[in-house]
Amino acid sequence: METSVRRRRGRGAKMRFFFLFLSLTVCGFLFGEEKPFDRGIRLFKEGKYKEAIDSFKESLKEGDDATIHYNIASAYYRLGDYDSASEEYKKALQLKPEYEAAQLGLACSLASLGKTQEALTALSSLSFIKQMKETFLPLIAVAERRGDEAAQEALLSILCALSPADVSIKLRLSEIRLRMGDSEGALSVLHSVLRLVPENPSAHLLCSVALRRLNRLKEAADEAEIALALGEKKALRILAQLYIEMKLPRISADYILSLAQESNEKKIELLTEAAQLYLNASAFEEALKVIVQIPKEMQTADTLLLKATALNLMKNFDEALSSIEETIKMADTLNARLVRAQILFNAGRLQEAEKDYKEILEKEPYNAAAIRNLSAIFERTGRHKDAEKLLKTLSSELKR
After folding, report:
1. Which residues contact 228 (CB under 8 A, 6 or more apart)?
2. pLDDT in tens, 244-259
3. What backbone torsions phi and psi does residue 65 show, to the nearest 5 degrees?
4. Helix, strand or coil, per DSSP, at residue 394
5. DSSP classification of residue 126
6. Which of 78, 296, 321, 370 has the lowest CB atom count within 10 Å?
7. What is the 8-class DSSP label of residue 111?
């Protein structure tokens, strides 16, 4: 009996275990086991962010997903771990670039890390920011038509803050600030452009303009050189002006000559300017080489005068006189007469030079160059009292 009872009891215990297992299996089938992602959502709502992160990461085993990375990032953000949050938001955006919630979350994380510029860049891609930009552009156009530079500057400054990666807006803002005389403000914007695009020729050119206005001429020249190397031909004129201001006329002449080669409309004018600069730098041969590039039928009184001056300084007096006579036929000016008198004086033809200087002084009694050279002729020809009298006349005039 005991054996029979034990057997019945054993069979009863097995049956109860079987029905318990069956009920649990059916329950699991009917209601489903809580998945890692759902558990992560529940834990996040309960404020258990670390546990939520673990659950979300577990759910990634089923496949990479932008929403999961977004949730992990949001949990890190709630924990104050902004570095990890930023990384997870970036992962979400790699998988889903148009994910605006992740974009906004990334901006907030970067701002919390003190990375303001990067945060603004992240914000700039949001659709509502783009809509604001589309609203601002017509307002800027209206301000431009009215000539209201202050309004343009204010609107462009806001746009730069909203779209910090927009190089075109930054360049426009820097140009407005330059027109308003704010060279330091323009430089600040231009430096931010060059951090984004180091080889932007327009930014380097505008930097050169701003630095020149701040009298930082060497830095201005360096920036203009970079702009030129990047293909910005406008830098040629700026470099020419800078080297004149730096009292380096020969280098300036080289740039003007390059500019002449790039221009058709103003070629003669530019060649004449380059020749004058070479003369100022005592580079007489270079000046003549430039003048020769000008076709004879296009030579003006100014170019012929420069040619005569260069030949005179090179002591080629016969050709110099020939050139100055052509000049006087074309335009009989006081300056041309002075150059001819100087050539005659240098050639030792003192009697002819004296005649020219006296004619000049009849028209302009206190012309300093004519008085000094005529007194020199008097000295050479032994008329010392006449020379002294003439110099006294100049001295008394200068004292007035």
Report:
1. 235, 236, 239
2. 999 999 999 999 999 9
3. -150, 135
4. helix
5. S
6. 296
7. H
